[in-house]
Amino acid sequence: SSGSEDEARPGAAAAAAEEKREERLRRFRELHMKRNEARKLNHQEVVEEDKRMKLPANWEAKKARLEWELKVEEKKKECAARGEDYERVKLLEISAEDAERWERKKKRKNPDLGFSDYAAAQLRQYQRLTRQIKPDLEQYEKLKEQYGEALYPTSDSLLHGTHVPSKEGVDRMVADLEKQIEKREKYSRRRPYNDDADIDYINERNAKFNKKAERFYGKYTAEIKQNLERGTAV
Prior knowledge:
This protein is an all-alpha fold. Helices cover 73% and strands 0% of the residues. It is elongated, with a radius of gyration of 40 Å.
């Protein structure tokens, strides 16, 4: 019996050694698979980071705004399908506190300070016109598919002669210009003639000059003018 036990011991030891070896190989394969998975994930992160670095600085803000505009368009379509007015539905979803906060923010962002100079007036007009522009997202997606990365110009891009505006775009521009001209004519309309006003000019240019002089020096020359009219001037 002692002989059989001596023969069984090397066999048990070999089996234990083989089991231990299999366990180590299994752990080695698991570590190898984890390393390959980590390498793959790191490569994906590097590629995504490279894409983010090549995007414009304000890409996230533009993306968020485009997603918001898409949601608004979907909401408008849903309201139109139900026969509801989108503006009324939108106002019903806004609380009074949010409306007051947005109104204060709007006034603070673009306050009307009146006329200061022509450059400021031109900038204010430009900001007002750009806020009215509604982008055509479908046309934008078509152009992006057609031109790819060339749609986003860089300092080396050749822009002159490469863009041909659509007929709809030209019509929108003409309509907007006609609206501006009509509004400008209302502001610069000719003032009605006053028959009872004193005639102290010889032509229209002289009348404008006299009005300007009266505006700046009228308070200093009022007494002299009255004396001249009465004939009591020395």
